[in-house]
């Protein structure tokens, strides 16, 4: 015999106090507490400190890392596999579903997350050291690009987000001899703006700032994305999507002895692609050779 029961739900939404729902409310329409207006799951938030404490991090000893290779990747959001990082691309607000840029820039604007930009090296693929000398002045950025006409951070985000169609991701691959394990770790991430994709803006194409990935992760854990358009039920947050490498990308820079862009001095796209494949194969071959007797 099936028992009839009543389920109680506690929902905490950002800036609102926790709401204890009464039985009669659930009996009326419980779906209103499970879904937002756009069909996404209602957000249940905690403090960034609580989220950060639950993130599992691998911290190897220096002497245990016997092989290491760092690269810089381009994640193009126009690729279908990367679409979940780009959409929704309009009508964003504090309570609805976000895209990756909305999460990052809102935290930078509100000074919850410090971004970095080199004042002396204009090279787009240059990742600055995350020191006070390289602090990104978001107020100056807003003033210089006439974004101060907007009243809220999300007004600025809605204006800018159509043009953020790529990201640079700096990552490192390494082998830990103590645990005999092969790992990858994202070190830094930067939004890349392309003026061709936002005709409303006169902001030039380029990288605005860099963010240390570990400091961004607690905020990425709070927000969930839609993996595809056929089934939006699976709950995957932005951190899981990036850490588990569910995105598609290609190498733009190899931090080898020369540490230069793989396309530097090259114009033939076939040769550039061959160089990109060479770097990818170095990583893949090392991992495969570990277990090849």
Q: Which labels suit this protein?
A:
293 residues; alpha+beta; 8 helices; 26% helix; globular; disordered N terminus
Task: Give a concise summary.
The protein is α+β, with helices and mostly antiparallel strands. The chain has helices at residues 23-29, 48-54, 100-109, 138-144, 153-160, 213-222, 238-243, 269-290, and strands at residues 10-11, 19-20, 65-76, 164-176, 181-193, 206-207, 211-212, 224-225, 236-237, 250-254, 260-261. The strands form 3 sheets. Strands 3, 4, 5, 6, 7, 10 and 11 form a 7-stranded antiparallel β-sheet that branches. Strands 1-2 form a two-stranded antiparallel ribbon. It has a two-stranded antiparallel ribbon with strand order 8-9.
Structure overview:
The protein is α+β, with helices and mostly antiparallel strands and 293 residues long. It has 2 domains: 1-34, no CATH class; 48-290, no CATH class. The protein is built from 8 helices and 11 strands. It has helices spanning 23-29, 48-54, 100-109, 138-144, 153-160, 213-222, 238-243, 269-290, and strands spanning 10-11, 19-20, 65-76, 164-176, 181-193, 206-207, 211-212, 224-225, 236-237, 250-254, 260-261. The strands form 3 sheets. Strands 3, 4, 5, 6, 7, 10 and 11 form a 7-stranded antiparallel sheet that branches. A two-stranded antiparallel ribbon has the order 1-2. β1 and β2 form a beta hairpin. The termini are far apart.
């Amino acid at each position: 015999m099936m028992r009839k029961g009543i389920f109680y739900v506690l929902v905490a939404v950002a800036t609102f106090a926790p709401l204890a729902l009464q039985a009669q409310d659930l009996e009326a329409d419980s779906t209103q507490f499970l879904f937002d207006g756009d069909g996404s799951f209602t957000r249940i938030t905690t403090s960034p400190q609580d989220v950060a404490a639950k993130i599992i991090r691998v911290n190897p000893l220096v002497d245990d890392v016997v092989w290491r290779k760092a690269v810089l990747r381009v994640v193009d959001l126009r690729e279908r596999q990367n679409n979940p990082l780009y959409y929704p691309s309009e009508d964003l607000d504090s309570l609805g579903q976000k895209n990756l840029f909305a999460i990052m820039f809102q935290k930078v604007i509100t000074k919850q997350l410090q971004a970095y930009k080199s004042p002396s090296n204009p090279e787009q693929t240059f990742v600055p050291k995350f020191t006070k000398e390289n602090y990104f002045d978001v107020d100056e950025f807003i003033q210089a690009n006439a974004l101060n006409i907007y009243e809220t951070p999300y007004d600025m985000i809605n204006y800018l987000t159509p043009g953020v169609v790529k990201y640079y991701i700096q990552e490192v691959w390494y082998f830990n001899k103590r645990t005999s394990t092969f790992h990858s770790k994202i070190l830094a991430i930067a939004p890349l703006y392309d003026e061709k994709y936002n005709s409303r803006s006169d902001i030039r194409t380029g990288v605005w700032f860099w963010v240390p990935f570990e400091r961004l992760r607690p905020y990425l854990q709070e927000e969930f994305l839609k993996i595809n358009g056929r089934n939006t039920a699976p709950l995957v947050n932005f951190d899981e999507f990036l850490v588990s490498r569910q995105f598609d990308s290609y190498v733009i820079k190899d931090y080898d002895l020369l540490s230069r862009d793989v396309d530097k001095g090259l114009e033939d796209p076939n040769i550039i692609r061959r160089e990109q494949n060479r770097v990818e194969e170095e990583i893949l071959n090392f991992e495969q050779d570990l277990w090849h007797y």
